[in-house]
Task: structure prediction
Amino acid sequence: MTETRNHHVLHPPEDAARKKKSTTPKWPTYKGRSQLVGTSTSHVTVYVDPSLGANALQNAHDLLAAADSIVKQNNTFFGITGGAVDVILFALSGATDGTGGADHDGCDFTTGKEIEVDVSYGAPERVAALFEAELSECAMKGDLCGVSTGEALSRWCAAVVSNNALTDFATAPIWAQDGMANWVDTTNATDQDTDSTGCGMAFLSWLMSQGHTLDTIAPAMVALGNTGTLAQLYAKLTADAAANAWSKFHTAVKALPGGVTSDDPFHALPVPAGAAS
Result:
């Protein structure tokens, strides 16, 4: 009979540490080291690519300091209590000025809570705007992000929380230059088309200029879902028929003295406190 013995292998502490499960979030694309910066009281946990040095770390500290205010505004826009999110700041697409944009996966606080944001050295408001663009999509309950209406809404949320820090991302002027196609009666099933996003930006500017605030617009758009149109949004917020939305909006755009030169051609953005009106 062969004697069986149990061999209890002794591992050094370093080996055990290597085997310990990592708590670092699984980012959509980022593969580098994730340096934890901190967690806000609103459950935003901020990380940074440590290889980028002091400027990126400052961006991360600034975002962490602003996180509670951004979350509060986002919750107000959508009438929700949002969930916890993780955000990594790095040179997305190799850029360090915010032009690399931001991304995440799903359109809710479960599948989309790992958010990637481009650093923007010396411009914390741009980082805040990029973060809010993705955070707002988490608030869309699985709808809207990925289609033209949701893209316009997320960009408007970003503009409001950051005092319009992403003016170089403007799409409405391109829509106007391209002939002002009617994306009011139809929703484009992509968030990557400049003209349909631009039409949405201008249309929401028009609605907001008439007194319809973002905290009434956002929940109404979420309720309409992916197949909802801007014309249906117009009908839901006004006493007018959806069939009149495009013609009234188009007439208003053509009457603009200077044409469409920004994503807010009807000057609906709130004036920052202390700024001249």
